[in-house]
Amino acid sequence: MATGRSPRTAGLGQERVTVRMDGLGHVLTDTRMMTSNPLTWAAGDVTANPQFTHLAGVHASVAASNAVLGLHARSAAPCPG
Ligand SMILES: Cc1cc2nc3c(=O)[nH]c(=O)nc-3n(C[C@H](O)[C@H](O)[C@H](O)COP(=O)(O)OP(=O)(O)OC[C@H]3O[C@@H](n4cnc5c(N)ncnc54)[C@H](O)[C@@H]3O)c2cc1C
Questions:
Q1: pTM for this structure?
Q2: Which of 40, 45, 59, 64 has its CA 20 to 30 A from that of 72?
Q3: Domain count, the chain
């Protein structure tokens, strides 16, 4: 069993680049997968979304498309933040 998995984000320096996190260390994003810093995007288990491979993949695709191509794609899945 692998229950209670949590992100290991302490010490990555998010504070310096003003990336907001929740109390458990998840990186918070909007539905475009953009963090509170417009130059920083996040997807997968490090976010506060359900921890599934397929969701991480969909969110990574949204994040990469928006970050690299300048699109405005949004994820339909919940993105607490
Ligand atoms: C035992 C187990 C069973 C699971 N079974 C399923 C399942 O059946 N179906 C399902 O959908 N999901 C399942 N999951 C969840 C799924 O594995 C995750 O949701 C998915 O892998 C998340 O992808 P990710 O890219 O966010 O993170 P990861 O796949 O964990 O990738 C993160 C990567 O970042 C690397 N990394 C970490 N820190 C650093 C750093 N500081 N610098 C550089 N690289 C770093 C890691 O080495 C890793 O390669 C399972 C998880 C576990 C633990």
A1: 0.91
A2: 45
A3: 1
